[in-house]
Write a structure and sequence with these properties.
Elements lengths: L4 H11 L6 H5 L2 H22 L4 H19 L12 E7 L3 E11 L2 E10 L5 E7 L11 H9 L3 E5 L11 E2 L4 E2 L4 H14 L5 H17 L3 E11 L1 H12 L5 E5 L5 H4 L22 H7 L4 E6 L6 H17 L6 E6 L7 H15 L36 H12 L5 H10 L12 E7 L3 E11 L2 E10 L5 E7 L5 H9 L3 E6 L16 H9 L4 H17 L4 E11 L2 H11 L3 E7 L25 H4 L2 H7 L5 E4 L28 H13 L1
Parallel strand pairs: 4-5, 4-8, 8-9, 9-10, 10-11, 15-16, 15-17, 17-18, 18-19
Antiparallel strand pairs: 1-2, 2-3, 3-5, 6-7, 12-13, 13-14, 14-16
C-alpha cells in the first residue's frame, strides 16, 4: 500500500518519538539527554493511558488530571469580587456593534476588551476569542470575531497580559515596552512566578475565566451555548480554559495542540504555555482534551506550522479513543489547513462551521463574509492606549509580589539542605572518569583540557592547570565565562591548581532574549522535574570531585570563584558541600527575592528554582556555609547595576579610562580570597 509523506512521518514518530528532533538534538547533547528523560516519562504515561477502558476509568483519570494541573500552576486566585465592567465606547459596524470595555479580573488588574454583538434583538450563542502573541492583542482576531457576529454570535476578545493596552514594562520616554516583544513580558513574569512556586499561566487562565464570567453576564448571551477559540498563544489559552471550565460547550484551538513527544525538543512554548513538572507529573497535551471529553473539540493545525500537524495528530489519535468511550465520536475532529503558523481561510471557515453546528443547531452559513477591519487605536478601550494610566491600575509584578508576601515563611537551614539534596545537587563524591582531550606544558605548569560525565549521559568540560613542583597544591574551581581566563591565569601564578569549569548548557545561538537568560533550556528542565541552576550546581560539585581525587591537589584546600548569576550556582554547591572551603562571588545579585520587586530582570531564568523564594533567599545559603569565608564583590541588582550595600560586600573604585590599572583591584580581591 502506498503511504503519503505525512503518513510515513507520523508512523516514524509513533515508533520513535524523538525522531522529529534528531537533527537539533544531535548538536545539543544536553537537549538530547533531557529529551530522553521526557521520552521515558511519556512512555510511562502512555502505558497508564492504555489501561483506561471505561468511562469510570476516564472519570477517575480526569479528576486526578484536573487536580494535578491546578496544583502545578499554583491554583487559581481565590477571588469572586465584582468585575467592575465599564463600556468606554462603541463602533456601529452596521449588522453588529463593537463595544470597547474594561473589566477587572483581580482588584486593580484591568483587562481591556472588545465585545462584538449583533444589532438584532434576541439571545445569542457566544464565543470567547483568545488572542495570539501579537503586540497589538485584541485587534488580531477581529476578522473572525466580526464574521461570527454577522452569523449571530456574541464574541468577546481581550488583550492578554503584556499585549495591546496591557503592556507591563512600558517606558513613557521611549513610548515602548522596555522588554520588547510581548512574549518577553510573559517570560519576565514567568520567571518571577516560578520563584514563588506558581506558574504565570494561572493569571492568563484567570483572565480568560473572568472574561467568560463577563460574557455570560450579558443579557443577549445564552449561557448554555458558549464556545472558545484562539490561535497560537490564544490556542494555548483556549486549550487550558476549554479543559478547566465546563461552561464552554464547543472548543476550537488552532496552531498549538501538540504532543510533547514532538514539542519537547521543538518550539518549546513560553512561560504561560508550559508548566513546571508537567511531564514529570505524568501529563501530556492530550490530557487537556481528554479532561473536557465529551465536549465538542475541533483541533486545527496547518501544514507548515512549527507546532507540527504530526504532533497535533498524536493528540487527536489518543483523545479520539476517549471520545469513543463516551459514545461521542462525532464530537472530536482534527483538521489541517494550508500554509504556515496561523489561521488561514480554511481554518476560519472550519471554526464557523463548528460553532454553528454545536451552538446554533447547525443553522447558518459557514462561508466567510467581507467585514470592515479597524485599526488598533480605533479599538482601544482606554483613553491613552495603556491600562497603567487608568486610576487604581496595578501591574502583574505587583500581584505576584503581593501573593509572595502573603505566603512567605522562613525556612530553616536543615530544611534548606534537605531541599538542595532533593534537587540532586550533591554528588556521591566518587571520582569521575576523566578524558584528557588536549594537553600541553607551559612555564607555569601543565595544562589539560578535560572532559567527564557529571551524571550519566551529561558530559562537561574544563581547563585544568596544575603548577610545577612536587606535592599537593591548594586548588580553585573557577566557573568559566568569557571574563575568567585571565583570572584563572593569575590564580595559577599564585601556586594553586585551577579548574576552569564549563557547566552544562545548550549552544550559545539558542534563544536568549534580552534581559531573560536561558529560558528555553530552563523551561525544558522544569517540564521533566529537573532544575537547570541545580544541575549546574551539581556540575560544580563534580568539578570538586575531579580536583579532590587528584594526587597533586590538596583536597582539604579547595575554593570556588564565579561571576554574575553563575555565583548563585556556586553558592548552591558550597552550601551543601563542605569541601568547598570558601567562595568569591563577583557581580552576583545578593537576593532572589529582590527580583520580585520590579517588572524586569536580567538573567533570572539562569537562577530560578521553583518555590525557593517562599522559604529562603541567597543569604540563607551563606548561613548554611557556616564559618567558611564568602568574599562578595560588587553585588548587583537584577539589571546588572552595582548596588551600594556596605559591609560585608567589597567594591571596586572607579578607574575611568586608566585601563592600565584595571588589574589592581582584582589583585587586591584575589589576595584576600586566597588568604
Amino acid at each position: 500500500m502506498k503511504r503519503s509523506r505525512s503518513g510515513i512521518l507520523l508512523y516514524a514518530i509513533l515508533l520513535f518519538p524523538t525522531a522529529i528532533s534528531a537533527q537539533e538534538s544531535a548538536r545539543d547533547p544536553l537537549l538530547r539527554w533531557m529529551n530522553d528523560i521526557a521520552h521515558q516519562q511519556l512512555l510511562e504515561r502512555k502505558r497508564l493511558i492504555a489501561g483506561i477502558r471505561t468511562v469510570t476509568d476516564a472519570e477517575l483519570r480526569k479528576k486526578k488530571v484536573r487536580e494535578t494541573i491546578l496544583d502545578i500552576i499554583g491554583g487559581l486566585p481565590d477571588y469572586n469580587g465584582s468585575l467592575n465592567p465599564r463600556i468606554t465606547g462603541n463602533i456601529d459596524a452596521g449588522e453588529y456593534t463593537i463595544e470597547k470595555l474594561i473589566f477587572e479580573s483581580l482588584p486593580g488588574f484591568l483587562v481591556t476588551a472588545n465585545l462584538y454583538r449583533p444589532n438584532r434583538p434576541g439571545r445569542y450563542p457566544a464565543v470567547l476569542a483568545q488572542c495570539g502573541h501579537t503586540q497589538e492583542g485584541k485587534p488580531e482576531p477581529q476578522r473572525l470575531a466580526a464574521n461570527l457576529a454577522r452569523k449571530g454570535f456574541v464574541v468577546l476578545t481581550f488583550d492578554p497580559i503584556g499585549q495591546g493596552e496591557r503592556e507591563q514594562t512600558y517606558v513613557r520616554e521611549l513610548d515602548a515596552p522596555a522588554a520588547g516583544w510581548s512574549v518577553n513580558e510573559h517570560l519576565q513574569a514567568g520567571a518571577q512566578c516560578i520563584l514563588t512556586g506558581r506558574s504565570v499561566a494561572r493569571y492568563f487562565i484567570w483572565d480568560a475565566k473572568r472574561a467568560l464570567d463577563y460574557l455570560l453576564s450579558r443579557p443577549e448571551v445564552d449561557p448554555a451555548r458558549v464556545g472558545a477559540t484562539g490561535c497560537s498563544g490564544g490556542g494555548a489559552l483556549t486549550t487550558f480554559i476549554g479543559a478547566l471550565d465546563p461552561r464552554l460547550k464547543a472548543v476550537v484551538p488552532a496552531s498549538f495542540i501538540n504532543s510533547y513527544r514532538v514539542l519537547y525538543a521543538g518550539p518549546n512554548p513560553d512561560s504561560e504555555m508550559s508548566f513546571p513538572g508537567f511531564l514529570a507529573r505524568g501529563l501530556d497535551t492530550a490530557d487537556f482534551v481528554e479532561l473536557a471529553a465529551p465536549t465538542p473539540w475541533l483541533i486545527q493545525a496547518t501544514k507548515e506550522d512549527y507546532f507540527t500537524p504530526e504532533g497535533a495528530r498524536l493528540v487527536y489519535e489518543e483523545a479520539r479513543r476517549w471520545y469513543d468511550l463516551y459514545g461521542a465520536e462525532d464530537k472530536l475532529r482534527f483538521f489541517v489547513g494550508p500554509g504556515p503558523h496561523g489561521t488561514p481561510l480554511e481554518l476560519r471557515e472550519g471554526l464557523y462551521e463548528w460553532m454553528i453546528r454545536w451552538l446554533k443547531g447547525g443553522q447558518g452559513d459557514s462561508r466567510e463574509q467581507p467585514v470592515k477591519l479597524y485599526t488598533n487605536h480605533e479599538l482601544r478601550a482606554t483613553r491613552t492606549g495603556r491600562v497603567e494610566d487608568e486610576p487604581g491600575s496595578r501591574r502583574l509584578y505587583e500581584l505576584i509580589l503581593e501573593d509572595f508576601r502573603a505566603r512567605k515563611v522562613q525556612g530553616t537551614v536543615p530544611e534548606l539542605l534537605a531541599e538542595l539534596r532533593r534537587l540532586g545537587i550533591p554528588s556521591d563524591g566518587s571520582a569521575p572518569a576523566i578524558k584528557v582531550l588536549e594537553e600541553s606544558n607551559g612555564p607555569a605548569g601543565r595544562r589539560q583540557r578535560i572532559g567527564f560525565e557529571s551524571e550519566p549521559g551529561v558530559e562537561i568540560e574544563g581547563r585544568l592547570d596544575v603548577p610545577l613542583g612536587a606535592g599537593r597544591k591548594p586548588a580553585v574551581l573557577v566557573v568559566a565565562d568569557e571574563t575568567t581566563a585571565q583570572l584563572a591565569e593569575n590564580i595559577l601564578k599564585s601556586g594553586r591548581a585551577v579548574l576552569e569549569l564549563t557547566v552544562r548548557d545548550s549552544p550559545p545561538e539558542y534563544d536568549r532574549r534580552p534581559f531573560i537568560g536561558n529560558w528555553k533550556t530552563n523551561a525544558r528542565a522544569d517540564l521533566i522535574g529537573r532544575n537547570l541552576p541545580a544541575m549546574r550546581a551539581h556540575d560544580i560539585i563534580r568539578g570538586v570531585d575531579v580536583l579532590a581525587c587528584r594526587s597533586d591537589v590538596d583536597a582539604a584546600s579547595i575554593r570556588g570563584v564565579a561571576r554574575g548569576v553563575k555565583g548563585i550556582w556556586l553558592l548552591l554547591a558550597a552550601a551543601v558541600d563542605t569541601r568547598i572551603g570558601g567562595v568569591w562571588l563577583d557581580k552576583t545579585p545578593p537576593s532572589l527575592r529582590a527580583a520580585l520587586e520590579q517588572p524586569m530582570n536580567t538573567d533570572l531564568f539562569d537562577a530560578v528554582i521553583p518555590g525557593f523564594a517562599i522559604r529562603w533567599d541567597l543569604g540563607d545559603l551563606v548561613t548554611a556555609m557556616g564559618s567558611r569565608p564568602v568574599l562578595w564583590t560588587d553585588p548587583v541588582n537584577w539589571m546588572r547595576k552595582v548596588v551600594p550595600l556596605g559591609r560585608p560586600y567589597l567594591y571596586r573604585y572607579v578607574l575611568g579610562d586608566t585601563t592600565d590599572l584595571a588589574g589592581e583591584q582584582d589583585a587586591r580581591f584575589l589576595e584576600e580570597f586566597l588568604r
